[in-house]
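Summary of Year 1 activities. Much of the first year was spent building the evaluation harness for sequence design. The harness presents a backbone, in tokenized form, and records the residue chosen at every position. We chose the following record to illustrate the format because it has been used consistently in internal testing since the harness was completed.
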């Protein structure tokens, strides 16, 4: 840790004040409709087991963040939220197609549509099948729940590492409106507004809200003269609740989000690479000269890029759902019918440099993704309080993704420029069927057993057709391959598999305000195909990418202790766990023909084990301190080297990517009255991460050193009038870090520049009517 990091830690400890944002945070009761089995007032309500329960009652390691806290701290997507939850990591990328969430150091890194993430994102009960769907701007939400560890029993096959459960805000019975505007010193502007209320009192309520945000970017493309790493988003969400009788309820939700981003993947961190395991340093003189010609010096704080075009990525993410709920006596029947689409169009500079030379080709990539999914879930929830209470259900998903990817590549040799164009059309279709259930066997009021099971059937198929202008007869000969563009390829395939997920455990209440639990879980993620632009086979008798990947399974032991004391002025959540993943589906980076390639493989066996703690202190009225910590030991147990890989792929015992050993988060707030109608709040939060490896291949040049980020704000609040004016500063110590490090396309190391890579300030004004 540097002196600057230590100073930030000490300074934050001295004035640790941030609004309660973690698991112990009380939700906004005005926007919630209480259910018959809702816990007593003051507890955090979660729906991790498809019923309203106190977070302290649920035998799962959970972090819950309220929508109010998200808005006040301007955490508007999963990437920014992950910084404040120590067990959660996030892989940055040039587009939503390349991004994914990690929990306890485990996630799936791939752009192939033939594999699903290990962390499931659920939006109002609807599972999102593609990682790119989950990185949406959140808008107005009630809360976000992060469930750590395998959750496949209730949430499905792509929850082998955990679940991010997003619950949007319900409409109110009384008419309400809200408006929010924000601006920052580095030219980010954000507007959010909406109305809520009863159309037919007692029968029909509605909420509609919209958002617009525009960020100018914090990277400069010296060739185009534009600021990049920028974004523009706008969207809307509507929710309609119809309750014709006390026993029947219908909820209709529709949302739409349009995003444009110019995130640059070509900001050079270094002109060198360090090899694993030799630690040999290879420095590229041609890369150094190419960058110097544009006035760029590669460094860990570099915010300059030099590419012929600005990256241009456009996303449309939209869908709708109908949730029907029928109360039959003490039982509740629920149906969720949903349809969603995700459209992604991207245009990127392949080589990351501005000038064609004999050392480096030049290329332009253009891609298009069209993803559709339909899902239907049925479940019945029994009443609580008897010998057995349970949830039983059935699930069906039909998902289809089609992609088109084109690469135009030019090379210079002997003074002659040669241009090759490759076009690939490919896609996958997935049908998923499941039966599931989970039950509590209540031996006494304080002691119970937990048993859950899910049986999953997968039908997965793919197609892939690639043409190359260097292979005009579509012969597919390897001799016609070009760097970054392979010759003709035409194949298809399908596979069918069935898998099991289950959970077994014991839970003991320790009085009225504490409980302990121990569980054993098995997670399951279905088969996969490595379907992508340069999909290949070695020869007709030895297929490579055409072979389906086996399912990924996980086995997890977890024990926890939860509780509160002194009238909830002290709350705590502790968890210890060990999880082993077999058939781990992962991308392994390799170099073929001088260009970077990735191979999606069953990488073998990995293990994540650790300790997590969340503690909240409320020593006096208006003052809250919230502390969270995670120690994560996520390593490769046994790695299966892919065909043709170098011996350097022996990475047994090495850390998993995006899995720092230690992450800490501290925050707190002190709110006090200035007058009878005006209050003030002082707040601050601190995130610390130990060093993190971003590459499964263990190259030392892709390790981000330890860093700490310190934020603070002050606010004036009129609770009775609904006004709040907040001034904030992000990254007070002006600490530069990289949210992702990767090998450049042909040489060097590139960095992804995070939003808070440098200090900036902002103002946020909100009015609730």
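For this record, the design step produced the sequence shown next.
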């Amino acid at each position: 840790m540097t002196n600057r990091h230590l100073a930030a830690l000490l300074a934050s400890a001295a004035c640790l004040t941030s609004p309660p944002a973690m698991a112990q945070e009380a939700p906004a009761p005005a926007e919630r409709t209480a259910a018959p089995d809702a816990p007593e007032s003051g507890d955090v309500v979660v729906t991790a087991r498809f019923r309203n329960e106190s977070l302290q009652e649920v035998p799962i390691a959970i972090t819950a963040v309220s929508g109010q806290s998200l808005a006040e701290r301007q955490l508007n997507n999963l990437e920014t939220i992950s910084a404040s939850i120590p067990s959660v990591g996030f892989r940055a990328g040039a587009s939503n197609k390349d991004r994914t969430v990690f929990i306890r150091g485990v996630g799936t890194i791939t752009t192939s549509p033939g594999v699903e993430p290990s962390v499931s994102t659920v939006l109002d009960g609807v599972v999102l099948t593609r990682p790119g769907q989950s990185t949406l701007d959140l808008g107005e939400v009630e809360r976000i729940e992060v469930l750590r560890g395998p959750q496949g029993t209730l949430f499905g096959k792509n929850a082998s590492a955990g679940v991010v459960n997003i619950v949007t805000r319900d409409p109110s019975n009384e008419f309400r409106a809200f408006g929010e505007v924000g601006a920052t010193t580095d030219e980010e502007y954000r507007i959010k507004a909406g109305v809520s209320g009863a159309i037919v009192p007692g029968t029909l309520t509605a909420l509609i809200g919209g958002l617009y945000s525009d960020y100018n970017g914090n990277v400069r493309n010296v060739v185009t003269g534009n600021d990049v790493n920028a974004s523009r988003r706008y969207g809307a969400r509507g929710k309609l609740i119809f309750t014709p009788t006390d026993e029947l309820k219908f909820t209709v939700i529709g949302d739409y989000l349009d995003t444009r981003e110019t995130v640059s993947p070509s900001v050079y961190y270094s002109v060198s690479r360090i090899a694993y395991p030799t630690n040999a340093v290879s420095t590229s003189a041609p890369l150094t000269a190419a960058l110097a010609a544009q006035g760029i010096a590669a460094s860990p704080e570099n915010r300059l890029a030099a590419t012929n075009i600005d990256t241009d990525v456009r996303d449309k993410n939209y869908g709708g759902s109908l949730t029907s709920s029928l109360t039959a006596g003490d039982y509740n029947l629920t149906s969720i019918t949903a349809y969603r689409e995700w459209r992604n169009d991207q245009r990127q500079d392949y080589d990351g440099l501005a000038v064609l030379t004999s050392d480096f080709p030049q290329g332009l990539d253009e891609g298009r993704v069209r993803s559709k999914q339909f899902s239907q879930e049925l479940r019945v929830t029994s009443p609580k309080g008897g010998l057995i209470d349970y949830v039983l259900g059935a699930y069906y998903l039909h998902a289809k993704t089609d992609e088109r990817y084109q690469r135009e590549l030019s090379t210079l040799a002997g003074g002659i420029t040669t241009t090759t164009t490759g076009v690939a059309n490919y896609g996958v279709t997935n049908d998923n069927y499941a039966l599931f259930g989970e039950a509590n066997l209540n031996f006494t009021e304080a002691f119970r057993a937990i048993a859950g099971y899910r049986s999953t059937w997968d039908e997965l198929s793919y197609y892939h057709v690639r043409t190359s202008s260097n292979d005009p007869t579509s012969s597919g000969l390897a001799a016609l391959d070009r760097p970054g563009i392979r010759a003709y390829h035409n194949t298809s395939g399908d596979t069918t598999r069935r898998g099991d997920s289950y959970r077994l455990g014991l839970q003991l209440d320790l009085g009225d305000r504490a409980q302990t639990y121990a569980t054993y879980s098995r997670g399951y993620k279905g088969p996969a195909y490595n379907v992508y632009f340069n999909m290949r086979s070695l020869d007709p008798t030895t297929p490579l990418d055409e072979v389906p990947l086996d399912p990924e399974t996980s086995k997890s032991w977890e024990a926890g202790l939860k509780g509160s004391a002194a009238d909830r002025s002290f709350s705590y959540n502790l968890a210890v766990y060990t999880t082993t993943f077999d058939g781990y589906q992962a991308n392994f980076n390799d170099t073929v023909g001088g260009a970077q390639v990735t191979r999606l493989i069953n990488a073998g066996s990995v293990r994540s084990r650790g300790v997590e703690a969340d503690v909240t202190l409320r020593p006096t009225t208006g003052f809250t301190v919230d502390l969270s910590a995670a120690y994560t030991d996520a390593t490769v147990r046994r790695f299966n080297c892919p065909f043709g890989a170098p011996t350097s792929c022996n990475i047994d015992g090495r850390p998993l990517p995006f899995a720092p050993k230690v992450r800490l988060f501290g925050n707190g707030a002190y709110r006090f009255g200035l007058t009878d109608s005006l209050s003030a709040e002082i707040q601050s939060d601190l995130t610390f991460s130990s060093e993190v490896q971003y590459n499964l291949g263990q190259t030392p040049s892709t390790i981000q050193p330890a860093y700490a980020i310190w934020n603070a704000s002050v606010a004036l609040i009129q609770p009775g009038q609904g006004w709040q004016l907040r001034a904030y500063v992000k990254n007070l110590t002006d600490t530069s870090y990289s949210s992702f490090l990767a090998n450049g396309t042909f040489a060097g190391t590139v960095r992804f520049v995070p939003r808070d890579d440098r200090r900036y300030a902002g103002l946020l004004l909100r009015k609730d009517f």
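Residues 298 and 520 are 48 Å apart (CA to CA). Quantitative recovery figures across the full test set are reported in Table 2.
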